[in-house]
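Quick start: read one record
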Amino acid sequence: MPRSLHGNRARILIADTNTTFRESLGQHLRSSGFEVVLVSSARSAFSMLRDRDRPIDWFYVRADLQDLMDGWILADEFLDRPPHRAAVIAASVERVSGQGHVVLKEPSLAVVLDAIRTVSNTPEPTRSAAVANSDPRRRAAYPMLSPGANCQP
């Protein structure tokens, strides 16, 4: 079971406007032992990220949230807060994250689950390489995650 820095189950925030995808991802992660928080807007995600009483351990966000801020801004907000971890971001375009976020181009549910499980079970210094190497289909579909790609953790 994924553990939080606080000793409880690891808490993951899922911010996605696609209700079916969000609910399915949440259900799979709950069955894997995560405490799951689901939101559909950037404003709700931002509020959850700022709640110091209930810290978020992991974060998945769709980059193109249609609100005052997008998923990229939220991912950076998450990175700036303890435990200073990168987010998993679903985007419509390939993009390298200089902050070490895991960026997946239009990923399937299975790919997102694999990325979250990989980052949550991998020590920080080797996280980018672990995600890139976790599924050979991902390397072909997401060249920015391929070994040797110009990604900076």
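Residues 26 and 36 are 6 Å apart (CA to CA).
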